[in-house]
């Protein structure tokens, strides 16, 4: 392969705080190395529609602190069709894109892997997802900010929960993963955490809440991952058993927004820079990874071959500490 | 009436951030003046159950910054019965309470007014309610913090809304009042605000969202006051009309928690102190009030006689500015 | 005077959070009414240099939540010279500016008053200043956000102060006014507040800190307004008297930044809209004002004729409650 | 050694947000396992003075979210004297403390190591320090919260910096380490970061600021680690060279306070629990460690034998990205 001159960049799948910081880092590192940066809008959709802009150093000024992604994002289900991917590859080639940087989660990395395998498009992945469900990296961009948002909201609930004799049910995101629910539940001392990785036992939860009331604890918070149940379902089940009112909070997309935390900004800056280093070394098909505080790279194929397991010790911990 | 020696204090109704700061200010001001402070738990319920503690200066240390109320609160529907109020008055007399300070909203003030009229219990009211529905005061304790919580959450939604092509529906509190919805909607530039004071026109809202999409605006936020409709109802109505997905956020009791804002702390400190000044001057039956940045007092009867009107100019403003 | 077609707008003096929200409200209200908006950069300097941009409805999108001012600001000392003001007036006339909206503090309003008196330029003022030193309005844009910033920082200090046996000195802004120091001092229960309006008595402060230590209170915070003394001076004086270490925090311009609070956004929205209403009614030479939760207008001349007095009851309150 | 029945716990050295969450986790995990917990106040000083309290499960309720440490902390320089350590060891033995859990930084771990070596007191370390200067763990408790505090403050500075033509100098903590300065500098895109690990070149910094002004960038932020220079020194040097005003912010102990971030709460919970696991396994003389998202243990001796090196790639990154 000849010299790399022009890179493409997309954010894809669910947005995550820190994606803008990653866009900035990729762009500035690339421009500093003399590369051209073509930024496509709405993920793979922008490649299909040839909706893009050339980014200079200053085009990414003032975006690091903003949640969401200035490139927007979209889920593009039709990307599962080979002919659609073929079209995308053709567009990238026509535009002279030598390598595509993909910031996103598992689905986005899978799209990249297929583009690469089927059409020889070199890709680099950067893990951005609030769900923390990508393996072979200590953290994904966005998880830390999302957890802070959840914990701040739940901490406010605790204030008011202590003033009443009620139980509160909070529904958080995470798709198939219970990580956000579990980590935020531990961080606020929730009475119970309901996650997809573990069968829910409403009887046990109701008993626990009752016992804690006897012990004098009055602020009961139950965290439920969207992948396990809805807040309404949990609320109905519990009210029937505990005999007093529950109240519901559904944070929804609030969890995807907000200025990224220091951790996510730093992680995004480092990963964006690492992606450009990989490009210069022509080390393609890899995802940037945080490993023991250092930057590393893992073949995307390896990342996709293994499901990130939830550390079930955390579930035990959540029960002991609350 | 002889000299005042002992005051009672309760927080009642829905809790509001800043109630603790008010408890602290009443206690410290009273103790400084040589008065005794009996703090009753769970509002009028604690008077009925004689569940109280004598508070010293240091008992209220470190509480100002905490949301909720350390005295807890409860709605006591049976307080509508004369015989229950009679029991409460008797308890207060037995305990030698010379005057009762009530921190709460309209219902709580009504309870106090009746105690006073029927049994000659002197009362002082301090307006604490996130709903901002108490008349004759520029602000109630808790409104400012609640608005900040709503605005922060909605601002995060805007980040992510700008990344997607979706509309977001946020349900906020306010009971019969649309103030929180309207004020927070203006503060984040929401596309539409649905409040109980104004009939909802789903067709007009859907058209507006469509027009704005045409104009290129992509982050649509619709705020709905719980008193007007539920987020679900609004979501269903809009999806049918606009033809794309909506997402829901229900903040719930998160709005009642959180460290109080500077404004609420200062307001609570001033009102708590003013309540004690009123006690020393034997100016009973009044509610402390913020009027043009100054402390004032208004007869509770006058407060209860007039419904606080929502400034409908704000509704116009919300339409012009977004 | 003929019909109003074109308005100018500047932010001037020290920046304050919420100025952007005011710019947005003026622009959108004016454009909605068919007026043209010329936004000048760096306050009066931009008028002198004819550095401006015509603002459309969408030019002020996404700015409400940002601290500072997108129009920048500058102090322009030479505006005290009549010939410089004459030049500014000439530029405004050449550009066909029918009325100038000035968002700023006392100095900026004075500049506007002179432009009006000397050259017949109609002006409207909007009070924006973190110092809360403008009379005839219950609040200025920016004060609320600034107080929240101060209080959050001081609250963090209290955490750590409780862990050590030290006293902490925090220097806050306010120019000639002690309002920020006093209001934030009350809101965190500071042991002492040193303000320009009241002579400092280091001996009394040191004695108080000593007494509180005896009583067991270990987290001493002393707030000092920049107009009264520097943190270093206070620190040196106290260390000599109390015999243990003090630590210093100087918040500096951190106090001017940050996303505006809900209160400041709403205030700015209302004032910006009110300014345009005044323009349409040709009610010139007035400042928009918050009065008992309502919008009002006050002649700028009246505003400038009276110094805003600090409510000295607050000083007493700060002593009683801590 | 016989069965473990009673553990001691201290927080020592500089306080860090999350220490309370660690105290809670150690206590609750230990009590759950049937152990007694003796909590000593003010670090080693409390052992010397036998100032302690027995902690039950509920004694550590409601502390996780609070900054600082409820056990207080102190630097005890005399602990360098063998006879003082001897006295501490004797007290621990008299009180029947079977193992001592030390939450703190390098100095505290050194104290623990000596107690162990000289007097056979089993110890377990938990790394708590905002400076991130402890080796063999990916993160210390407190670093994440401290970084968020710094980044939030600096972000506010950027707002106002964009409104003026000034440069801002921010002094942050870190003792001998430049980590906080560097990480927060990257996270806000600071123009320059001055750290003890790298000689400062004021000429180069001044030139850079000048160049960026030419390029149109107007918000210059210079971060300086306390271990490298003071904000005043930096300010004076720069003003002489750049010819315009600088403004100073000294965050001071604000950096040590604040509710701990989700990350720090989770880390503290896990490390506290791991410490108790180590105790039950009689795996003494180790420090709990975060390694690739998992809990691990490292001999304290090994931790102390190696200085944590600052990743100098971060310095390069800070220059490329701003």
TrEMBL record, chains A, B, C, D:
Cofactor field: Mg(2+)
Principal subcellular localisation of the protein: cytoplasm
Keyword Electron transport: no
Binding site for ADP: 24-28, 158, 189-191, 215, 217-219
Compartment list: Cytoplasm
Binding site for ATP: 14, 75-76, 105-108
Record-listed E.C. numbers: 2.7.1.11
Pathway as given in its UniProt record: Carbohydrate degradation; glycolysis; D-glyceraldehyde 3-phosphate and glycerone phosphate from D-glucose: step 3/4
The keyword RNA-binding is annotated on this UniProt entry: no
Root EC class: transferase
Chain residues that bind Mg(2+): 106
PANTHER family, sorted: ATP-DEPENDENT 6-PHOSPHOFRUCTOKINASE, PHOSPHOFRUCTOKINASE
Function: Catalyzes the phosphorylation of D-fructose 6-phosphate to fructose 1,6-bisphosphate by ATP, the first committing step of glycolysis.
Subunit composition and interactions: Homotetramer.
Protein name: ATP-dependent 6-phosphofructokinase
Source taxonomy: Bacteria, Thermotogati, Thermotogota, Thermotogae, Petrotogales
Gene (UniProt): pfkA
